[in-house]
Amino acid sequence: MEIRSTTDQDLDVFVDTLHTPFGRFPAAPAEGGGAWWSALEMDRGLFAVAADGRLIGTAGAYSFELTLPGEILAPAAGVTAVGVVPSHRRQGVLTAMMRHQLTELRARGEFLSVLLASEAVIYRRFGYGPATYTHRLTVPRHKAAFALPRAGGEAGSDTGSIEVLRRADCGEILEEVYDRYRRAQPGALSRPHRWWAVGAGQPPISRAPRYIAVHRDADGVPDGYASYVVADPGTLTVDETIAADDAVFTALARFVLAHDLASEVVFKHVPPEHPLRWQLADFRAGQTSDEDGLWTRLLDVPRALTARGWFTDGELVLDVDDPFLGEHGRYLLTVRDGKAECVPTDREPDLSLDVSDLGSIYLGGTAPSLLVRAGHIRAHRPGAAALADALFRAERAPHCLHWF
After folding, report:
1. Annotated binding site for acetyl-CoA
2. pLDDT value for 88
3. CB-based burial of residue 91 (10 Å sphere; 0-12 exposed, 13-18 middle, 19+ buried)?
4. Residue 128 placed within a domain
5. Domain end: 242, 258, 290, which one?
């Protein structure tokens, strides 16, 4: 078997080969837009080629910016289009592609890799850990009344306005509002202009018909939107809600929950710890399901840890095992005034952990103490887990909406 890079000329056969593992055929592009694969970066793709020349696997990557705690933008490879044809599964093809890809990412100078996992059991063995989470919230309209704020005043009051546009008429607004949002939201990924230009991805990036509720602040500047559609038998589905703050999110939520002829409203992505469910008069009205979002892998531990922002001073010795790449390192992490230094050390460890667990806690979405309790991270002294919780927290829960 050989692993080789792809070129632009390979796009069609790459897409055909990719669909085979999933038992599907490439679907026609959405109305007026491009296919999701029109944003693929073919200079970052890989083919697995059998000894007889047949293409038996694919893997790709996008060039993104990932927002780290502290509103720091860092380059990150977005791993995508991974699949092995059914006749060659369980033969080491995926493992070979993943090892080859990680080696290439490092050769490019990249220190972070992220993906959306189709199956949760696959990618942890390659060093990825779930790092962001999202809620799906379903609210019957007859239970959608909002409670009066008990703290007094107008909590979450909004002085802006909402205008309903069609997706085809507001592409620039969507791109600008999302870009401002993602720069301040830990765990968010950039959406390169090319994606918007060709309509690659899921709504509202794709040009599939959608209504867009655009929120404008008191000066008329767009600062949020909700992309939605109503389908039989009366379910209004919100693809995503992008908002500058909780007040804007609440205004958009109130708007869609008051939509005529909708029997229920489904919010596909509500950030963790968002207060919307608490704002409803009936706390049980909103039924939630939790899903993992972005999975993160550190390719260079010291570089990754010094890249993000920090909010508590302290120091920890981390003993990090990377079994997939056959590596092991012990690092002294020292945080002072929001900056970190991370250097090799021979001091006794405070925490021992797998690189996948380090990926899970990296963005602040998973508490180290939770993984200690789960038996994944070992704390070597009392107080080490609590200190790690304080150090690794983010200014708010990380959240990733971008599908790739």
Report:
1. 82-84, 90-95, 118-119
2. 95
3. middle
4. no
5. 290
- The pLDDT of residue 156: 54
Residues 6+ apart with CB under 8 A from 170: 212, 214, 225
CATH code of residue 157: 3.40.630.30
Enumerate the active-site residues. Answer: 123, 404
| Overall domain count for the chain | 3
201-211 burial: b if 16+ Cβ within 10 Å, else e: bbbbbbbbebb
Closest CA to 338 of 298, 393, 383, 379: 393
Amino acid at 100: H
3-state SS assignment for residue 173: helix
Spatial CB neighbours of 128, under 8 Å, sequence gap ≥ 6? 113, 114, 115, 117, 295, 296, 297, 356, 359
Question: Is 157 in the same domain as 215?
Answer: yes
Which residues carry a binding-site annotation? 82-84, 90-95, 118-119
Q: Name the pTM for this structure.
A: 0.95
Give the pLDDT confidence of 220-230 residue by residue, as tens digits.
Answer: 999 999 999 99
Could you read off the pLDDT of 67-86 as tens digits, one per residue?
999 999 999 999 999 999 99
Domain assignment present for 167: yes
Instruction: Locate all alpha helices (DSSP H) within 56-192, ordered by sequence.
Output: 93-107, 171-184
Is residue 193 within 8 Å of residue 176, measured between CB atoms?
no
**320 and 257 in a common domain:** no
**Residue 124 included in any domain:** no
